[in-house]
């Protein structure tokens, strides 16, 4: 009975640690948004003040310029990176920040992969994926890498690792590195993986500048260094397809890294449903 109580206490502690980590991630994301919006608002106030002094607003109805923005997008130069594809930018406001929404990835490798996007902890990454999917950004692209970390890398329209839209979004919901073990006995206790199998995360180039590329983990992974991949969702359907893709043999890429799939993996389409909706049943029936 004592061991059962100890296990219950351990599980309770682990649950509390996860809750605290998620809370810290949300607070960090809020600070990032507030910092970006604060700079933009300061500029708007300066410009507005100059215009007011010049009488630009005389006789006009007051304009509500209060920030209802949830996200901020950083423009990227397609002239300096020809692998970028310009499809505009998502709106910065009116973005859901609660619940989940389904994303369905249809490939030529089996049943569609269904992902539950996390709107609470990764609203901007989720909004970006939804926007790009609505522009058919991912249609007929490839998953160009099977990484040594145990993940499938997709979302690059050029398949070079350098491609994406002409904007980026900052990191959201990046896992916290585990604290050093206080004792040898604690070090021997297995830790939950930071990226469990089925995790979907954004990957930026450079890290922190996330565009359209994402990772689908087909095995558990915990980095030995500071985590760099912000988690955007979890696979809820099609894990067999993910596992199948993960078994595809790889060959060396131009840099000599053995990560390029020997067989081409085609993403036929990606669709994103409305917040709180269920995946499209017609999509799950495709092979």
Commentary on this structure:
- The protein has 287 residues and is an alpha+beta fold.
- 28% of the residues lie in helices and 21% in strands.
- The protein has helices spanning 2-53, 123-134, 184-187, 239-246, 281-284, and strands at 74-75, 84-85, 100-107, 113-118, 141-142, 145-146, 151-154, 164-165, 167-168, 199-202, 214-217, 231-237, 250-252, 258-261, 266-272.
- Strand 13 (250-252) and strand 14 form a beta hairpin.
- The longest helix is centred in the first third of the chain and has 52 residues, at 2-53.
- Residues 1-6, 39-53 and 55-67 have low confidence and may be disordered.
The largest beta-sheet arranges its strands as 5-15-3-4-12-10-11-7-6
DSSP summary: helix tally = 5
Rg (C-alpha, Å): 22 Å
Order of helix and strand elements from N to C terminus: HEEEEHEEEEEHEEEHEEEH
Percent of residues in β-strands: 15-25%
Class from secondary-structure proportions: alpha+beta
The residue-averaged pLDDT reads: 82
Helix content: 25-40%
Reported for the largest beta sheet, the result is: 9 strands, antiparallel
By DSSP, the count of extended strands is 15
Low-confidence stretches: 1-6, 39-53, 55-67
Distance between the termini: 49 Å
What would you call the shape? globular
